[in-house]
Write a structure and sequence with these properties.
The chain is mostly helical. The chain contains ten helices and six strands; from the N terminus they run αββααββββααααααα. The strands form three sheets. It has a two-stranded antiparallel sheet with strand order 1-2. Strands 3-6 form a two-stranded antiparallel sheet. Helix 3 packs antiparallel against helix 10, helix 7 packs antiparallel against helix 9 and helix 9 packs antiparallel against helix 10. This is Kinase-like protein. GO terms for molecular function: ATP binding; protein serine/threonine kinase activity. InterPro entries: Kinase-like_dom_sf, Prot_kinase_dom, Ser-Thr/Tyr_kinase_cat_dom, Ser/Thr_kinase_AS, Ser/Thr_Kinases-Pseudokinases.
Length: 229
């Protein structure tokens, strides 16, 4: 599935797929991509306090918008699944949990749908039946937007979502009770403001139909960036 999804994508904010290596004796298949020496977005931002957080997030939004335009749901978006290239541009990666929307209509349920880390998962991903959804239907562009809100939180706070709850087994109940990450009072980066917090709150709305599209999130990030220049 990852090979199928990834092979369809070509965008400056998506990590390119160079090829495939098959090891029949081990029964394994490896997907080959360019080496990204600057590591993932989370590590990069921690090591580069001078980096423009909004610029990086706008790049992630553009990559995700492109992925969605190709009819693909990422399914496992978090800062560790965004790499940074030699030009300092973010590149989405790890499409192992991705589905194209035609495939979503066919799939009933598989355990792989719940492999994504629960700290980034929308409430409908955690308990689809509560939303009258099949597990496959809970994986949507809207659930990606919820996760992208968590990526914005990561970049500005320097912490994973719900960092104050070390045991992840308690996260699903927390989220399904309507709780979200705490407001950023002591953020790791300058530039965070009330408008961004309002955007995060919209991304994290409990009703997936009420969340903004990734296009709207990109526009909002660009507006905040223009205000801070």
């Amino acid at each position: 599935r990852e090979l199928k999804s990834w092979s369809l994508l070509e965008h400056e904010n998506v990590l390119p797929l160079l090829g495939v290596v098959i090891a029949p004796e081990a029964g394994q298949l490896w997907l080959v991509s360019p080496w990204m020496e600057k590591s993932n977005l989370r590590d990069y931002m921690q090591c580069h306090p001078e980096a423009d957080a909004l610029h990086m997030l706008i790049g992630v939004a553009r990559g995700l918008k492109y992925v969605h335009s190709q009819g693909i749901v990422h399914g496992d978006l978090k800062a560790n699944n965004v790499l940074v290239d030699d030009q300092g541009q973010p590149r989405l990666m790890d499409f192992g949990l991705s589905f194209d929307q035609e495939e979503l209509n066919k799939v009933q349920t598989t355990s792989s749908m719940f492999y994504g880390n629960c700290r980034w998962l929308a409430p409908e991903r955690l308990n689809p039946t509560e939303f009258n959804l099949r597990p496959a239907e809970a994986r949507s562009t809207s659930s990606d937007v919820y996760a992208f809100g968590m990526v914005i939180y990561e970049v500005f706070s320097g912490e994973v979502p719900f960092y104050e709850i070390p045991n992840s087994m308690f996260i699903p109940g927390h989220v399904l009770d309507g709780k979200r990450p705490k407001p950023l009072e002591d953020v790791a980066r300058p530039g965070f403001n009330g408008r961004l917090w309002s955007l995060l709150s919209d991304c994290w709305l409990g009703n997936p139909r009420e969340r903004p599209s990734v296009q709207a999130v990109e526009v909002a990030l660009q507006a905040v960036s223009s205000e801070t220049e």
